[in-house]
Target: Metal-dependent hydrolase
Amino acid sequence: MTHATTPFDLTITPRDLRFGRGSRTERWWNGGDPVATSLYNALSATFPKGEAFFVDSVRRFRDGAPPRLAAEIKAFTTQEVMHSREHVAFNKRALDAGYDMSALERRVDRRLDLVRSKPPIASLAATMALEHFTAILANQLLSDPRHLAGADPESAALWRWHSAEEIEHKGVAYDTWLHATRGWPRFKRWKVKAKVMLFVTRNFVVDRTLGSLELLRQDGITGPRAWWRLFWFAYVRPGMMRKILGAWASFFMPGFHPWNHDDRALIAVEERRRTAMSEAPAP
Model:
């Protein structure tokens, strides 16, 4: 059986865009819903430091990589640096809206410090797993308009731009991992990546849940009410976490590669949307 690899005709294109500069973002920017807002804000709190970690983890293995992979690592790095920059600005607007995300950022620091204390291949493995996570979340965000229904236009545009580029470069960390572990026995490679994904998944779910609950607490929403509303939004309607389960499980299958599912059509749709909005006459 022949398994997919990164498409030969794929071009990873850094799009140097800026969002929300000079504008004020409402506290509940995502459809006026504190729960939807808290989940996306909690995710954004991880990006500046998390994506810097991704860049460092992958770039360490660029030397000696095949020329095509080396070029993709460079483009991946450029995209991630711009994602970090835009989420720094986004997080600043959340701060201006009255949220304190320092506890969320400290948790990110603790997680990253733990991984950095291990050999570089551990950081690459964690990046590979997290990049699959972000890619399948991005697929869902672009596939279902309910996730950003009624959101502030500039914030929604940021998340769609970020999601499109996460899909576009979703194979880079995985291909870097395959190159870095090319001398490993097949079962060892699978065992390590499976254990890392389980560890990453546990931390991702726990940390994003606790982060969202902390932001909801700052809105006066606590206890069983906060837990139930967050669970409903994440797992029932629109239910992004429930909908990614199959794509998440595919990671453990023999012959897995992120590009086994070619979802570049979502990038094209987003590009057309952005072009149409930029050409629309000003109100």
Summary: The mean pLDDT is 95.
